[in-house]
Structure formats: structure tokens, C-alpha cells
Amino acid sequence: MAAPLTLLLIVAVTIRAVLFRSSWAELISERVEVVSPLNAWKRVVEGLALLDLGVSPYSGDVFHETPFMIYLFHFVVDYAEIVFMVSPGLVFCLSRFLTSLYLFRKQKYALESDRYPADCLELLRSPKEMFYIPLKVAMFYLLNPFTILSCVAKSTCGLNNAIIALFILCTLKGSALLSGILLALATYQSIYPLTLFAPALLFFLQRLYIPVNLRRSSFWFFTLQYAFIYVGSLVVITGLSFFLLGSWDFIPSVYGFIFSVPDLTPNIGLFWYFFAEMFEHFRLFFICVFQINVFFYTIPLSIKLKEHPVFLIFMQIAIISIFKSYPTVGDVALYMAFLPAWSHLYRFLRNIFLVSCVLLACSALFPVLWHLWIYAGSANSNFYYAITLLFNFGQILLVSDYFYAYLRREHHLTHGLYLKKKDGTEATLVLK
Amino acid sequence: MGITAAAARDEFQEELVIRPLHSGDIYASFQFRTLWDTDFLQEGQKVSHYRLFPKSLGQVLSKFSVRELHISFTQGFWRTMQWGQPFIPSPPGAELWVWFHDTVSDVDGNWKELTNVLSGIFCASLNFIDLTNTVQPSASFKPLGLGNATDHRFLRYATLPREIVCTENLTPWKKLLPCGSKAGLAVLLKSEKLFHSSFHSQAVHIRPVCQHKNGLDFAKILDAPSFCIHLCINCYLHLFTEWSLFKMFSRTLTEACPLATSSKVYVDITDNPEGELFELSPATPLLSQAVVLGDRRTYSVFDLTRAETFGQLRSLNLLLRWKGDGGEMLRPLLHAERYVAGFGLQTGEIHTVIYNNHPYRAFPVLLMDSVPWYLQLYIHTLTVTSKSRDNKPSYIHYQPAKDRHRPHLLEMLIQLPPHSMTEVTVQFERALLKWTEYTPDPNHGFYVGSSVVSALVPSMVAMSTNFTQDQPLFSSFVPVKEESSYFVRVYTEPLLVNLPTPDFSMPYNVICLTCTVVAVGYGSFYNLLTRTFQVDEPSLPLAKRLANLIRRIRGVPLLT
């Protein structure tokens, strides 16, 4: 197991190193699918240059990174490439942990208990199958073209992904303190990981055998503890950021920017063209609608998936990546890395072929239509917008397909795999 | 303060300078200056009696506590390399810069109202000047008049490169003159011929100056400044081998303005000492020499206040006939160009090229760039190279733009090596705007105002720092502080930049389609969250269901 993983690491690092040194690096770092106004490397360098000139980086509208990034890159700007290569490595560590500790344990427990009907044995995964999952997850992340592009472009999305991966790692390991601190850091970087508070909380409650019952005091006790760690570290980190430049300028520049979407640079998300063509009168209303859309799936999903917090984390990350205000392919790559962990759901997926074709075709068409619009002048913005719509539609189908498959497997685990109708013939299962 | 005392306190001078150029072209510069001993800001004494000074502008000055006001409207671009330095430069479009008094508490509010009032006075769309195209230069545009306080918080500069100048702007401008367009040199300002020129610029410059009356000491007059309003029209006409005032302006001069203390026409004959290049008639014995823009020039003077200038016909029609081909023109020592490099609608580069044509002297120049917010400048890509080597500016002041609030301001002090070309490049990215923020013709492009290059250029000829009353107006516009250099301001071309545009016919479609995709997501998740899996029992056909209903009533076993 160690040998294939090491080989994989070497291949991944080699690919990235080769691309860093080639002429493609500059081309990739300008692509709007890979970088956004929030995490472009060019803007980080611009912010540091402004700081050198004696002007606050937040006085203009070019720099939207948090002060933590200024702290970090002030010292390592010359070694930026190494930093960006280390971050996928962190995600890779997570993959090992995710499967080796959590999934193994859960499956062992399931096997040892006789909870499941006899014919469900084939639904459960054997340790042999699960042996290769860490390798697959690592492969899915490290060799994913989206991740490679994101890394070569030196987009800080890679660093954000690493923080989220570390947070998941600490959650699965059971350390509430570290998990709270890392979640606060992830929220501080971009607001959306706030929704990951619920799955992390559910995981700890499950681990500590505290039932999720609103009337129980033990539930509230732990919730308040975890919330205190989280909010406390968030306050501390924000306070430390204040002391970097001595002003609260970064709050409207970073968080105000994420929420109010003033910059309409095209990207792979749904926001830019919508707000470019928005009637001024309705702008505030639709901003609120779109931002609430990201957050409001948390409660219903948590209620439905309260026994399965790890899948809930995957769902939340996917929803954030699709509906956030400035998505990039790096965000897409993060939730795609989880897919091998649910490879046992393959038999219940309904649209996987269609979805993969759509995603592949859109990924190929993005640069083509961008070139036609911006450089050749023979297409217009509608072409690029159409592909954006299709790409997001494909992602939504993918995520809801996996959700369907997961729920269906759970249903079969409780009711048996081969279901029969009242008259003994084979039954079909529908959602009613 | 009796009326006689007030009458003695203001004076009006007018002059016309004609500079024939080698290619047969004419540079005509009209200058009208009114000097008035008054203080608009005096407490308790409102100025109400206006004689020569235009009342509309006087009221504007006192209402908005303006110390200096400079406004110009220009059609065309001044080609410095071919035509030489103009006496008073101006950028294409409209330009307005104002120094307010330091007693003003809300400079932005005053600025907004001032632009709207001026827009009404000059019939121009100066109301388009707002905070998104106003900057506060920190080093360029120092006061041209009296001024010891140079806190740049009281300075505002804005330019509208898209503004067009036409007859509608000329008419209110002419109304500011004491004689209107009825007498004096202003009769030549007829719009049909004037706007046929390659370059036309009309400007108003108001500033406080010291009164330099004979024998009076400088220091005593400092606390009682007088206001000087300087109106000038520059125009550049293409003409052929023979021109006359009548051909150029479709009028001749018949009298001087009765209210003017001096009314003169200067014709530049420096290149024609023996009369071999062109022949000027009527001949005049009056000659004058002046050092202007670092060059000693000789002028034939026609004094309109003297009756004999008009001759028998009582009208002055200057005639100039070219005899030989022109020689070399003096190359201007400072010259600048600007252009946009790059392709596509995503990024680009602004290149500003500054030429120093002095053979052996290096001098510093101050470059000021004001770029609109929708071109996002990346200051870390700023490079300054002279003679293919890096030339680091000694002073950089950069204020980044805030989207939809203020533009970029970049000011740099660059030392130009002698006889060299310096190139300043900076990269930018083009933003996608909201569909309502585009002009009605979005594919025309967006204008970026001219860069301003200001410098004290070393002069080949010693300049005189003494001010006398007899000095021609065109040589005393900018105060000369030292003998060896003169102040020059060069404006570069404005840029026309294309931005990516959304499809303007699609707002409803876009809203529908995007909301559909979001609704697909919502719908899928809603289904999966609220419904459960059940075994699909097929429903009975309608006939059997009705039969079951009847059977239930009868109490008989149901069909399946």
C-alpha cells in the first residue's frame, strides 16, 4: 500500500513541477475557470506590492484575500510553488485517514452486528474492496486535471481546500478542539464552510454516543462546548487580523465582497451573468436569495442525514462548490475527491453516464467558447453562459444522484435488497 | 468705494498671436485677459458690481469659495512633434481642475455643485463629472496663481475625453468677454470657420495674481490679490500658400474693443528675418521680441488701439503669402505618446512613451495617469525603462480605484536621460460591467483620459523673471520662477478601450434560465429530503376502482 501511494505522490509532484516550469503556467493562471477575483495569485502579488508601496491592499478593489494570506505570503512568496504543492498533499493525508479509520471501523461494526437482513451482505463492502479506497481517493484528487490546473495557477483555492481537508481529518480523528479551530480558520478564509459546523457536530455526537434529542441536556452541553470553541477561535483569528493592518478594512473587502458580488468577472458559477443582466431594482433581493440558497440546505440535510455525518460533509461541500459566489474548478475538485469513498453506490446511480459526459464536454468547451468570445469576437457572452449553466446542471445532477443512491442503499440495508410486491413478483422502488 | 474707484480697478487686454508653420498651416491663439482688484472671499462685503469681469463666473467663485479654476474644451489632438508646443496646452475633450479655498469644509459637495453650475454656464455636459472620474493629484497641478497652501485635499481634477465642442459651447464662452463678439478681436470668432480647423480649444483660467503696477512693491500687495481671468482660444488651421484674415475667419478687424487697454495682433516672423520665406502685408514697423517656451521669437505687432493700423479702408486684413519652402522646425524638447497594447477583451497594457529631445541635459518629469475603475491596473507590473535599462521613479503616489467610486491615480517622478525615449508600461484587466452601466454605443469603447506630463524643461535661452505690463499675454501665462527653465505640460492621446459586453437583449432570459437551474437543484433535493422509498404497488384501472367502491358499500370483498 505504501508503494503505490508513494508512486502516486511522485507522479503528481512531477506533473506539477513540469507544468510550473513550462510556458503553460502563465496561460493557466489567467484562465477565469481556474482563478477568480477572490483567489487569483496575480492579486496576491498585487496586494503585497501595494503593501510595499505603503498603500493598504484593501483600499482598492483588487485584493480580496484575508490578512492571514498576507501574513503567510509575506514570508513565503518566493517559495510559493512549494506551498501550493504541499496543500494537495494534505488532502491526500486526509484520504488515507478517511478510509482507513472511519470507513473500516464502520464496516467492521456493521459486519459484526447482525442488524442487517441476510441478503444485504453483498451491499456491504469487504475489507478487500476498501483496501484500495485511500489510493483511489488520493488519485482522484492528485491526478484530477482540475486540481493540477488549480495548483499550477497558484490559486489560493488549493490552500482553502487543504484547510478544509485538515478540518475533516481532525473531525474524524475525534479531536473537537482542533476541529473547531480549523473550521474557524476555514470559515475565516471564505464564509461558506460555516455550514460544515452541523455535520461536524453530528459526527462528534455520534462518536460520543450522545443522542440527537433537543430535550436532552447532554446534547446542549456538547453543542455549546463545540460552538464556544468554534466561535471563540473565529473571534481570536479575526482579532489577530485586525492587528496586521490596524483597521477593519478587510471585513468589507473580503466578506462584503463575497456576499454582495460587485465584481462580475465571468467564472464557472451562476452569479456573474445573472447579476450582469439584473435590473437594479431587484439586485438586493436576488443577492439575498442566491446567498440564502447556499446556506439553507444545511438544516434539512442534517435532519435527513443525522446518522451519516460523513456523507453530510460531502453533500455540504458539494453544495458550497456549486452555489457559491465565485466558484472555481479547485472547489469542484474537492468534492470530486470524495467520490471513490462512495464507490459502493455505483449500482444505484441512475444518470452517471450522462452526467460524466456532460461534465467532460463542458470542461472541454469552456476554453473554446471563452476564446471565441474574448479573442476571436465571433461568439458572445451567451455561449459561455450556456456552458456555465450546463456545467452547473451536470454538477447538481451528480450530487443529487449520489444522494439518491445513498438513501436507496440505506433503505435496502433496512428492508432487504430484493424486494417483493404483495403478490410475490419483483418490486420497483419509487420515491413517494 | 465709489464707481470711479471701482472702474480703475479692473483692466482688460486682448491679443491674437498668429504663428505660420512651414507646412502652410496656421496656429492662431486668441487671449483675452481681465485683471480685477478684488477679493471674492471678503467677509461682509459681497461683490455685486461687475464691470469687465463676467458676473456669472464671479458669482460662481464666491459661492463655492474657489481659489483657482481652469476649464478647457478641446476638439482634436495637438500634435506636438509636428506643430511645436502650444502656448497653453489642453487635452482632448473637457478638462476641469479647481483649487478650493482652505475654508471649505465639504469639498466634494462644492465640487459636485460647481460642475453642475459650470455645465449650465458653458452648455456642456460637465454634469457627467462625478466621483468616478475625479481625482486629487498630489504633485501635478500645483496652483498657477498665488498660493502658499498646497494641501491637495482642496484640489479636484476631472477630464471628460468624450466631450465634443461645438457652436453651443462657443456662444456662452463669447458672452464672457466684455465686448462680447461685437468689437475687438472677438469678431473673428465665427463658428463656421473656427470649427473647420484641425484643432480647436477654448479655455477659461481664473486665478489670483499679484498686481504688478509700476513702482509698487511686491510684498505690500500680497494680502490683496487680484483675480485674473484668462480666456483663450487656440486653433490650428490648414491653409495653403496664401492666407488672409478674411480667408481664415471670414471677417476682418475694424476696431479694437473700446474697453480694452491693449489690443494687439502678433505675427511670428522669426523664421522670416529677410522676408525670403513669406511676405506679410500690410507691413508694420512695430516689432517685438519675446522669449516664449525657451525660444527667442520675433513678432510683427499690429496695435489695434492706434487708428493708423486700419489704414485707408478702416479694416485690417492681414495677408501672408508664402514664397519659399519651409525649413526645419525646432523640435520640442518634451513629447509624449500613449497607446494600448495587447489583444482580446480580457487584458491589455498601457504604454506611455516620453521623449526627451534635449541633446545633453537630463531633467525630471511628473507623469500623472488617471485610469477609470473598470480597467483594473496591476501596479506590480509597472515597468519604467529608459534606453533599455530599468529607470526607477523617485516618487510614486498610487491610489488604487474603488469599484464604482473612484478611479486609479498614478503619479510618478521620472528622471529622463538626455536624448532618450522612456517607456512606462502597466498591465490592466478589463471588467465586465452591469448592463445598465454601458453607454448606448458599447462597442465604440470607453475613453481613458489623457496622461499629463509636467516638467520644468531646461531652456536654451535665458528667460526673464521680471514681469512688466508690456509683456505679451502669451509669454506671461505661466509664472517663470527661474531663468534657466520653463514649465511645460504635455498631454498624451486619450485611449479608446473595448470592454467585454453582455448581451443586452437577454435580461429576462438570463433570469429565467439561471433560476431554472437553481430550481432544478432545489427540486431534486426537496424530493430526496421529503419523500421516502416505497414499493410501487400498481394502481387498479378506473373500472375496477369504481367496482370496489360499490362493493365497499355493499360490504362484499374487494377486487385486487
Automatic annotation (TrEMBL), chain A:
Main location: endoplasmic reticulum
GO cellular component: GPI-anchor transamidase complex
Residues in the signal sequence: 1-25
Keyword Transmembrane helix (UniProt): yes
Subcellular location: Endoplasmic reticulum membrane
Keywords: Endoplasmic reticulum, GPI-anchor biosynthesis, Membrane, Signal, Transmembrane, Transmembrane helix
Membrane topology per record: Multi-pass membrane protein
GO biological process, one term: GPI anchor biosynthetic process
Residues passing through the membrane, by range: 163-185, 191-210, 222-248, 254-275, 282-299, 311-339, 351-376, 382-404
InterPro entries hit by this protein: PIG-U
Pfam entry (one): PIG-U
Pathway field: Glycolipid biosynthesis; glycosylphosphatidylinositol-anchor biosynthesis
Family to which this protein belongs: Belongs to the PIGU family.
Protein's UniProt name: Phosphatidylinositol glycan anchor biosynthesis class U protein-like
Organism per entry: Cyprinus carpio (Common carp)
TrEMBL record, chain B:
Pfam families for the chain: Gpi16
Transmembrane segments: none
GO CC list: GPI-anchor transamidase complex
Entry's Gene Ontology BP terms: attachment of GPI anchor to protein
Protein name as it appears in the record: Phosphatidylinositol glycan anchor biosynthesis, class T
Record gene name: LOC109108130
